[in-house]
Amino acid sequence: MSASGDSILLLGESGVGKTHYGAQLLRRLMKRDCQLRMNGQATNLESFEAALESLSEGKAADHTATSTYVDSVWPVSHENGTSGQLIWPEYGGEQIRSMIESRRMSSAWRMRVQHANSWMLMIRLQQTQLGDDILSRPLSDLRKAVPGNPAHQISDQARLIELLQMLLYVRDMSHPRRPGNPQLAVLLTCWDELGFDGSPSEALRARLPMFWAFLSSRWRTPSVMGLSALGRPLNPHTSDSDYSSRGPEHFGFVVTPDGTHSPDLTWPIHLLLDEHSQQKAD
User: Coil, strand or helix: which one is 42?
Assistant: First the structure.
């Protein structure tokens, strides 16, 4: 973790749980009982206040407005004594989908891509769908496709690959001599709802094989983890009394790359910061 601060670019479409994870992570940092803890005054917490209040009441947080983008700056320290500055963004996930569909990136997003040391991609596998091909539909069915069908939509796998290719292109164009790829962590969110017994990488490979192949071709050892920021499903309108009485800080877990469950929600952040520090040392 650098003294000048490390920035993580948080990537995720609508509904993957960015707000819930940010709120739960912020709460963990303030409690100071995880590997990372808050080490000073955080800024721009307004976008998380409503989410923190909802979780305290045992309710799911509201959806983040599409136009929102706020960089919240959190000074953090590790239990081994190192410290740094974590820049945590909160934004509407529709911005990511719009970026992919239009194949255009605003100047503000270009700046974020260029200055981020690490990327964290949040994917909710339950929301993804595979496109039809000769493996999922017989050729005879594909030949019967009616020409007047609605415009073809790219698959979720192709869209995720397109997103990373756009980001890598913008990053490489801004710093053509910068070595290697950024540190990358893939978080498979709402893991408690997935019902998968294997490791996170096995789940990603089984559900999105083409996307997994792309990741493996660009990153030698992709860091894939599972995340349940809330620990259980919550309703935005009905309070979970057990959740509110015990406190949100007692819920949620991370599934590490080897399949181990950890209650430390700061674990993925620590991994990215640690990998970035090692890369700079090399």
Answer: coil
